[in-house]
Amino acid sequence: MRTSAAAAALAVAIFATTTAALVGEPAHCVWYGQCQKDPVTGHSLNCQYDGPPKPLTDPDGIAVLEKWCPHMVEKLRSSPGGLATCCDSQQLKDMDPNLDMAGVFLQRCPSCMQNFANLVCDYSCRGDQSSFMEVTETEVDEETNRTSVLAVKIFLARAFAEATYDSCKDVSMPSTGQRVMDLICGEWGSRRCSAERWFTFAGDADSNEYVPFTIEYRLDEAPPGGGAPLQPPSTPCAAAPREDSAACSCVDCAAACPAAPPRAKRPAALSDAQVVAIVAGVLFVMIAVPFVVWEYRRASAGKAECSPGGTPAVGQRLAACDASPPPHRRADQDHDPDPVASTSRRHDYLHQPGLVARWGARWEAALEGAFAWWGALCAKWPWLVLLGGVVAVAALASGVPHLEITTDPVRLWAMADSRARLERQYFDETFGPFYRTAQVVLKAKDLPSFRYAPSKKEMEFGPAFNKTFLLEVKKLQNSLEDLAGLEEVCVAPIREQGSVPMPDECAVLSVWGYFQNSEDLFNAVEVDPRGYIISYIDQLLSCAHNPVSVECLAQWGGPVEPTAVFSGFLSDNAEPEDGAENEGLHPFHRATGVVITFVLRNHADPEKNAAALDWEKRFLEFMDNWDANERPNFIEVSYTAERAVEDALAAGSRADAPTVAVSYIVMVAYVAVALGRPARNMYNLLVGGGATLGLGGVALVLGAVAAAAGTFGYADVAATLVVLEVIPFLALAVGVDNAFILAAAVERERARAGEAAAAPSRIGRAVGRAGPSLLLASASECCCFLLGALSTMPAVRAFALFAGLALALAFVLQCSCFVALLTLDARRRAARRLDLCCCFHAPKPAPPHDVHAPQEGLLRRLFRSALAPALLRRRRTRAVVVVAFVALLCLSLAAAPRMRVGLDQELAVPERSSLARYFRTLKEDLAVGPPVYFVVRNGPDYSDPLVQDLLCGGARCRPDSLTAQIHSASKNAEESYIARPAASWLDDYFDWSAISDCCRKGVNGTFCPHETLSCKPCKIQLDPVVRRPINILIFEKYLPFFLRDNPSMQCAKAGHAAYANAVVLKGSAVGASYFMTFHTVLRTSEDYFHALAAARDLSANITRTINNVLAAAGRAPEEPYEVFPYSVFYVFYEQYLTMWTDAIFSLGISLMAVFIVSFVLLGFDVGSALVIVITITMIIIDLLGMMYWWDISLNAVSLVNLVMAVGISVEFCSHTVHAFAKSSETTRTRRAEDALVNMGTSVFSGITLTKFVGIIVLAFAQSRIFQVFYFRMYLGIVMFGAAHGLVFLPVFLSYVGPTPRPRTPAPKDILMLPSSADPSAADPEAKE
């Protein structure tokens, strides 16, 4: 790579290979022949000559003139003097290889090459040189007494200079994706180059070592002797310079690109978020306004009936207009305008049930009877049931050691058959995995900017250019390079296979690469001919603008991209260096920091990465120590390595483990206290406590989780860290809620005459009443999660499977083992044994009401006397609740589409970790995008000219070729996210083949490096028109030579450094290959997945073009050829392309499962099922709105939480709806109040308070992912669930609750009665 840039710079020197001048009249030559060679540079110097042109007779010289100067040959042959020139045959023979060398870079655009050659031909050989050229300095050789030309002025027409520059300015270098002007315009590079700057650098012998003598170009300035400036013929790049050549391609000539079709002016379209916001507003108006009007009319109608002039239609209503009705009648009138009529309608319905109602009633009765029988059975044999449960859990949980925990992020975020994962697999298997990196970002702290004047202009330089800062950077870089084993694991682009690794061959991207890692070069100070001081700052700035120049190449042989080594220069107030002329140029001089990147080899086999992992570990340990103990105060540092993310996640999990443990301990402690009886006295505290029961219930839940994990361990289904973090929370939420409901049911169930408190019949009746509600909730949740396993996202699928099985097992254990625990606890209380210390009796006998009579707790009294009346007995309050919740729903619906999609990397690691600092720096300061590879799968015949035209980017290539389309996309980087044209190995192979000395072979025809002069040139046969290998045999024979040849000054296009891994050979043919470019700077998750989508759109268009063109030519393949894009991040961000679709699908199928299960288990009651689903949908939409307002993005983690929210919301809704449906009260409002008091208290004390106390602890977690996706979302789930389940749902039921079904008595069973076979039924202490 070093010598390739040198060759390009030497090509510039062709402007002055054979120049000298005299001024005289009439016009004549100013030189002829060569006098001597410069002893320092080795360049030939031309002899001063004042005379007429001389005839050219040498056939070899004439051949060169015909090859490069056809316009001159044609003109001279038609003139009286014939082929008379100011250059001899030797000058022409020297000119030929020099023009060939220039052609390596310029011949991609025939017009540029021909314009360039025309200039060289005219000033070198025209017979009237003195009319446009003036000699300004000469030197006399004392030995030969011959005068050599050292400096000249050429008076050149600006129109020609501009035309030539315009034809060459866009010519690209496929290997680097840059422009040729980056090489041949000196410090200006392509972005700041102009015609005048190009010609100035081309003649500056002081700054361009490849120029033999100084040439001062004077544009549009008249020569001193009169006449016109030199103006050779020129051809625009969009036109062919000769009949046998082609115009430049779009890749190398912007004027040759087809004009973009005019964009039709379309009316401004509303975004999806705006449409949803409008729909939400309309929805609110459609619901709230009619509802308020209806409520107002009802209220007015009620007042009118009770006014003095009112005449109720039904006589019984007169009683309701009593001036002072009793309180309960006054409440009824307020919340039900026609209680009598309502009761009458209910009476008629009960006596005339429909077929579905009768079936539903029988089904409910059967369920209640089955649960009553089962509860009595478990209560009769509690120890046997517990033993069976323990054995079953232990058997299933024994599979936990076999459970695989997925930590590979690829397997976590991408399905095995997803497109991104399959393409990644293909790339890794075909070309090898993407390389590993270790990176250090060093930012100057408290160092001021300073002013410096390079190139006559004073500029303000950022603190990254501070000398002390850069020397500290070098010191750190040296220490890192000295870490043992680097040369064994690093990427070395020009290292030959089998050679001994050398540290200086390692690809280390650093600003010190501009000095070849030499402090001597860094400290060197020179004075240029103009008297300006040249220091390290000039070198840095020059290399930042032209990194491929010879003096800027790194020690390992390659260029250092400035965007990869400078940071902090893309600030809003950064100014371009030369105003609008250089629009788009990065202001590197404003950099505030630098970057050091070590590029390491990667392997698909993890075992082969062991050495790299060890070096990365040493790297991270060294940086940790350097940051803590050696870092200067004026430097801020952030760093990472390939293994750093997994290490940080493991460290974060260990750091957050105590927080999570405290969360669960707090929840367990609350459950243990809350399950007990109200502590009205010391006896209730010691005997009536529920600590043992609570701990047993929690143990059952955790046993269910362990059993589910063990089951999947046996089934070889992998789990994820998300599963391990979320499932216990979910199972504990649902399990504790069910435990509270069962305990409350047993507490409320009164013992019949002669029936013991622990009698199986009493326990059975309680289970019969609570069991259908538990089955409704658990079945809904299990179906919800198991259907959620249909999701294509691995994280969601794993969570759904584990959650479904864990909740199913928890339900079985609660309906069996927890019932047994309730029985044993009742026996303990009856026997006056202490809680937690059942071997000890209470000091005094239990009062009768403590043993037999259920006691009303404080929470139930608050619900019955305060919340329920305040919420349901006032019509205005109910109306306000409905309008408020509908408003919240519509606001959340409008906000949801505006929610961000993606997962910021810094959220996954502890906030104060070094990796978190690195992610913030990456987002704020770094300015390099990730590479992207456009992969051509196996199939095309690359030796076929039509296929070549569809892939290459040079002259005669199609304007819609792969390279051309990527080039066009790079011109619209804001939408395509493509930063530069692609590196095309095919174009460089064509150019390499056209240089006679690039390909060499040994005696037996094997490959030789081109620098091995003992080997013979290959003499590749080329097509005379397109200058490509002439046939398939030639193409395939020498392609391996190209891929093994290292670039040098003589052969800049050799492909080993750039393309060694880009082409896979199958035998002698090409199997697969890629064309590499870069994405633009990507900072947010949206940038990443939008870049993926844009690259896929581009590759799809390329694929269509290739197949359509081949089909039109009658050469369609059996299987269409495919081009696909690949970048290392695609597999992680592909999920976000369909995140909203996946979210809607997962949530929709979960809600559908809840509806179906609710419909069946509520006795085919469509109304009740709809009420549950509507309420859950409102909770989920409100949760989505909260995510937007609280800055929680939509990703796999939050989607898992949303699916879990559906399950938990079932707990908040289904029990209340079931209680409403079973209530025997006479009006909807009273039934809603009854359900709220009897079931709402269990929901509030169970799932709400249990989860709330545990969630609060998560706020203190160190990991941001816990703080954002667990604390915030869990808190939202609980708060919205409680608000809807305990406030909105009762009010909603009071308006639209379903009409009660006729009650069918449950079938009687002997187990429902006291049994003499069970001594514990008569004597609670018999079995103690």
TrEMBL record:
<keyword id="KW-0445">Lipid transport</keyword>
<feature type="signal peptide">
    <location>
        <begin position="1"/>
        <end position="21"/>
    </location>
</feature>
<dbReference type="InterPro" id="IPR053958">
    <property type="entry name" value="HMGCR/SNAP/NPC1-like_SSD"/>
</dbReference>
<dbReference type="InterPro" id="IPR000731">
    <property type="entry name" value="SSD"/>
</dbReference>
<keyword id="KW-0813">Transport</keyword>
<dbReference type="GO" id="GO:0030301">
    <property type="term" value="P:cholesterol transport"/>
</dbReference>
<feature type="transmembrane region" description="Helical">
    <location>
        <begin position="1169"/>
        <end position="1190"/>
    </location>
</feature>
<keyword id="KW-0443">Lipid metabolism</keyword>
<comment type="similarity">
    <text>Belongs to the patched family.</text>
</comment>
<keyword id="KW-0753">Steroid metabolism</keyword>
<feature type="transmembrane region" description="Helical">
    <location>
        <begin position="657"/>
        <end position="676"/>
    </location>
</feature>
<feature type="compositionally biased region" description="Low complexity">
    <location>
        <begin position="1314"/>
        <end position="1328"/>
    </location>
</feature>
<dbReference type="Pfam" id="PF16414">
    <property type="entry name" value="NPC1_N"/>
</dbReference>
<keyword id="KW-0153">Cholesterol metabolism</keyword>
<feature type="transmembrane region" description="Helical">
    <location>
        <begin position="1273"/>
        <end position="1296"/>
    </location>
</feature>
<keyword id="KW-0325">Glycoprotein</keyword>
<feature type="transmembrane region" description="Helical">
    <location>
        <begin position="683"/>
        <end position="714"/>
    </location>
</feature>
<feature type="compositionally biased region" description="Basic and acidic residues">
    <location>
        <begin position="329"/>
        <end position="338"/>
    </location>
</feature>
<feature type="transmembrane region" description="Helical">
    <location>
        <begin position="1143"/>
        <end position="1162"/>
    </location>
</feature>
<feature type="transmembrane region" description="Helical">
    <location>
        <begin position="799"/>
        <end position="824"/>
    </location>
</feature>
<keyword id="KW-0732">Signal</keyword>
<dbReference type="Pfam" id="PF22314">
    <property type="entry name" value="NPC1_MLD"/>
</dbReference>
<keyword id="KW-1133">Transmembrane helix</keyword>
<feature type="region of interest" description="Disordered">
    <location>
        <begin position="316"/>
        <end position="345"/>
    </location>
</feature>
<dbReference type="InterPro" id="IPR004765">
    <property type="entry name" value="NPC1-like"/>
</dbReference>
<keyword id="KW-0812">Transmembrane</keyword>
<feature type="transmembrane region" description="Helical">
    <location>
        <begin position="774"/>
        <end position="793"/>
    </location>
</feature>
<keyword id="KW-1015">Disulfide bond</keyword>
<dbReference type="GO" id="GO:0005319">
    <property type="term" value="F:lipid transporter activity"/>
</dbReference>
<dbReference type="InterPro" id="IPR053956">
    <property type="entry name" value="NPC1_MLD"/>
</dbReference>
<feature type="transmembrane region" description="Helical">
    <location>
        <begin position="381"/>
        <end position="400"/>
    </location>
</feature>
<dbReference type="GO" id="GO:0005886">
    <property type="term" value="C:plasma membrane"/>
</dbReference>
<dbReference type="GO" id="GO:0042632">
    <property type="term" value="P:cholesterol homeostasis"/>
</dbReference>
<keyword id="KW-1207">Sterol metabolism</keyword>
<dbReference type="GO" id="GO:0008203">
    <property type="term" value="P:cholesterol metabolic process"/>
</dbReference>
<keyword id="KW-0472">Membrane</keyword>
<dbReference type="InterPro" id="IPR032190">
    <property type="entry name" value="NPC1_N"/>
</dbReference>
<feature type="transmembrane region" description="Helical">
    <location>
        <begin position="726"/>
        <end position="746"/>
    </location>
</feature>
<feature type="domain" description="SSD">
    <location>
        <begin position="656"/>
        <end position="824"/>
    </location>
</feature>
<feature type="region of interest" description="Disordered">
    <location>
        <begin position="1303"/>
        <end position="1328"/>
    </location>
</feature>
<dbReference type="GO" id="GO:0030299">
    <property type="term" value="P:intestinal cholesterol absorption"/>
</dbReference>
<protein>
    <recommendedName>
        <fullName>SSD domain-containing protein</fullName>
    </recommendedName>
</protein>
